[in-house]
Design brief:
The chain contains 17 helices and no strands. By secondary structure, the protein is an all-alpha fold.
Length: 307
Amino acid sequence: MKNNVVSHPAFKRIGTALAFCVVFFLVASMGVAQDFGAHQGFPAMSDRQMADFHLFQKSYKKAAESYTRLINQGNDKGMVFRGLVKSYYGMEFLAGAEAFIENYLIAHPDSSSALYALGYCFYLSKMYEPAKEYFKKAIVADPKNALALNNLGAVLSHHKDYSEAVSKIKQAIEMDPAGTFYYENLKIVYREMGEALKFQQEFEDSLKNGKVRQAKGYGNALARSLRQESFRLYSQGKLQETIENWERLVEIYQKINNQSGEVSGLFSLAILHEEQGDQAKANEYYRKVLEINPQHIQARERMKGVQ
């Protein structure tokens, strides 16, 4: 993994320190990493986390086996079925997922999670009409199935029924404010509508109205976009614009109290200022990192000229 990250054009000059930040962001987004400074290394992972980790590593066969085992043990949650489908999709063998789900539905015909998963198979195959029908069946079986509501919104967006798409995705967010990709889908729909700024406005509104979990969802989605844009700018040699983007990203993380994201953002800013040749500014950011996380070894080791 390390070689793949460092070889990306955005890291050819910035070195392994900023690459470390990206790996931290990715692993933390899976829920595998714990609060910084609590211990050395990562804790033992649950069976579900291990399945997610295999999927993250693109070890699709291991992931499919892990998700299958979880379902057979009675864990029939929607995200487990979704992971199963994505694993088979990664193996380019969606028919395997379909066969397993159809067999599961024989014994569990009212399983909202399985109905959703079968619809998701059709969705990934770009067969939107049968996907839509199965998402609707999943919602009838469980009106609170946020995954089905979200993907139904995506299908509606494909058909340019944007107002209904927004409605369904927002219902998904209401049911499950922590579902990160619901916000990503909403942001995409607004962009397709030509109203991209609405997403930023809804983020600000959620902060103002004290909707903490929704604010985190909106904020994290905005931060991911800024991070991707920063890598693009950096690969083009636009260092100052990259720094400005990371500053905006850190500000968002501060607003939603995402300290792990803030720490990684501050550390990245320090690295970028080092590259600009401004060691004093870099040290200022390293100090900010250490104020939040005194155990941050990389920040402490990279500080220079500080007594």
